[in-house]
Design brief:
single chain, about 60 residues, alpha+beta, globular
Length: about 60
């Protein structure tokens, strides 16, 4: 299953591990979206920065 991950809050001022997680997901700017295949590592990254991103399922 693919998901679209969108950065909706800035990682500025967050802990370094959260900033690195946002970068590892491929998110660069606010409102930037990436499509990823949902896997356990990606799900863990989403859970770690869930307060900064929104996630939508793609068909």
């Amino acid at each position: 299953m693919k998901v679209r991950i969108t950065l909706v809050r800035s990682p500025i001022g967050r802990k370094p591990d959260q900033r690195r997680t946002v970068e590892a997901l491929g998110l660069r700017k606010l409102q930037h979206s990436v499509e990823q295949e949902l896997s356990p590592p990606i799900q863990g990254m989403i859970n770690r920065v869930s307060h900064l991103v929104t996630v939508e399922e793609l068909k």
